[in-house]
Amino acid sequence: xxxxxxxxxxxxxxxxxxxxxxxxxxxxxxxxxxxxxxxxxxxxxxxxxxxxxxxxxxxxxxxxxxxxxxxxxxxxxxxxxxxxxxxxxxxxxxxxxxxxxxxxxxxxxxxxxxxxxxxxxxxxxxxxxxxxxxxxxxxxxxxxxxxxxxxxxxxxxxxxxxxxxxxxxxxxxxxxxxxxxxxxxxxxxxxxxxxxxxxxxxxxxxxxxxxxxxxxxxxxxxxxxxxxxxxxxxxxxxxxxxxxxxxxxxxxxxxxxxxxxxxxxxxxxxxxxxxxxxxxxxxxxxxxx
Length: 289
Description:
Elements: E1 3-10, E2 14-22, E3 28-33, H1 44-50, E4 55-60, E5 69-73, E6 80-84, H2 94-107, E7 113-118, H3 120-131, E8 139-143, H4 148-152, H5 158-173, H6 192-198, H7 217-221, E9 226-231, H8 241-252, E10 259-263, H9 274-287
Parallel strand pairs: 3-4, 3-7, 7-8, 8-9, 9-10
Antiparallel strand pairs: 1-2, 2-4, 5-6
Helix pairs in contact: 1-9, 2-3, 5-6
């Protein structure tokens, strides 16, 4: 299998690093969008299986790469650094990231492109397609599309969540959105704006609204075909995966193009069933004109 390393420009004269797996002249290209704290190497077994024959995969480190990172802008004396990583990324910046990946793919002559999001990469894929309704992308595959907000609603999390929520709001209101929450309040390193983005019902990131009960306006705004794939034993789900699948079926009105599937016996990362998932993705992609 061919492997190529590259970087591509995004907004504000920044660059992201990527890897191209498979043929350099594919009929179908999957742009892999990793989840919170992930990287190019996330779900490597699955994307390697997809990068075969006439298919290829473009994987890249989006701004949620790792825990705490920084993006460089400019060179020399004009060089600046901006906070990134799971702790600091601004969710809406995903539009710039995916714009850059799509533009790079099209510059290589690819015309048949699908977004392949995993975990929080699902929210980014849907948000992007809602914000870019005319982009030349055929559709999106959502791997483990779970609401982050739903996790903090569990009874065992509630007291800790409310304390962290109040602190994050105070930081943002005082003009310190990129200050990290103390580990005594929240164990995962997150700054105030990232916490509020992940864990509030009003956030633009709360796209899969089965827990908040809000109308999923962003999801419904997407006019491209969507394949959502749930894991039966997803450790981040607050309810049975079959119930989340039913919610997706109702919201997307599954039919000729929109589909959902439940993979039995596995968790959030689909480990052990990558071949089944890859086969499902390939079969569905072939039905999209």
